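Give me the fold.
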Amino acid sequence: MLDIELYGGKRGILEHSRARLLYTLGAYRNVRDVEWSLVRRLVFICRGNICRSPYASSRAQSLGLPAVSFGLDAAEGAPANPAAAKYALTRGIDLSAHRSARMEPARLADGDWVIVFEPAQLAEVRRSIGHGLPATLLGVWSRPSRPHIQDPYGRSERYFQRCFSVIDENIAELFGRMVRGGAPATKNASARVARVPASHRNSCDGTAG
């Protein structure tokens, strides 16, 4: 039986299924078109900037990558969600200093690569900033693809860990591609391809698709 909690509940599995179908049909094909030589900073954007995007930017920073995070509807200066901070710490990521910030076009610059977690966020970001900066869905870089990564806010520890595992897997894959592609963002990062330690992966990882 399908374990819907691994997708963030009923809404999560519905959005996941819809996004996977559209991705298979080519709806988001261009999100993997990247000129690596131009990528200087990773910009992670979610809804409230208190769970997914701060964790993702901190994970990227832990690999030596320049990264920031914003929220489409974020309140300025809010700390990370307590549950997110708690579970991130078990994976070696400290979110205690994080303070949320709202996504504004003025906060973006040439060389930024915008990375979101849901197709709806991708559409919203593109309406806001146009097509001048490249944008992608984080979950399409590892296998199996996960174009929609459901918000873990208010969900169980099990889904928080699964969500963070999906984020880790995709960032590790991105890091390797950026290194091989000569992205300027990797110039101060380790020269090796990153591999997220197994201790940071939840035991339920292999059951999702």
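Residues 191-209 have pLDDT under 50 and may be disordered.
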